[in-house]
Design brief:
Protein Transport Mog1p, Chain A, 3 helices, 16% helix, globular
């Protein structure tokens, strides 16, 4: 019995010590009146594009690389929507009513809530929500789930979209948990006057 306990303890300690530690990189950007940083354990990249109007920050990473049916590379397009106030949230189909975030029905498509899900987002000093929309046309194996979100610290409103976070037919291969974790790691910083 002692030998068995010894070997169990030995293998447990060996496994823990052999597990690679995830290094977290902090990425920071500022544009159009929004200044924020992200804690990035996924080895992604964050770049600013000022080619078009409005300027965007684009985060790109590959999630679930070893999982069959994952979407692979995910791009998140961030835009600053501070001037829009609560309309920024409404434009993405949700708003805060009292203390709860709720999905808003689309008057031109009353069934749109059937394919949407809401995810309240919260981190210290920040609140907001994300919603996913499941594509309903085309071959089931090709349909994707997209994401829209807005976050605020009551001074800045940062919104964004991702065209593909999962294939609708393969929810277990979804990158959504990683994307939501990344969004909840966002921390707003004080904007500077030099913001592009």
């Amino acid at each position: 019995m002692r030998h068995l306990l010894f070997w169990i303890l030995y293998f447990t300690i060996s496994t823990v010590l052999a597990s690679p530690k995830v290094s977290v990189v902090t990425r920071e950007t500022e544009f159009d009146g929004c200044h924020f940083k992200i804690r990035d354990p996924y080895k992604g990249s964050l770049r600013l594009t000022t080619d078009g109007a409005p300027p965007l920050a684009v985060y790109t990473a590959t999630f679930n690389l070893k999982v069959r049916h994952s979407v692979g590379e995910v791009s998140i397009h961030f835009y600053c929507d501070t001037m829009e106030g609560n309309n920024a949230f409404v434009a993405l189909g949700f708003e805060k009513q009292g203390r709860a975030w709720v999905l808003l029905p689309n008057k031109s498509d009353p069934d749109n809530l059937l394919n949407k899900k809401l995810y309240p987002l919260k981190s210290p000093g920040i609140e907001g929500a994300a919603s996913t929309y499941d594509q309903t046309t085309g071959e089931l194996s090709d349909r994707v789930q997209s994401l829209g979100f807005c976050l605020t610290n009551q001074k800045q409103i940062l919104c964004g979209t991702s065209e593909e976070v999962a294939y609708v037919a393969y929810p277990k291969a979804s990158s959504l948990p990683q994307v939501l974790k990344l969004l909840e790691s966002i921390e707003f910083l004080e904007p500077t006057a030099k913001s592009p």
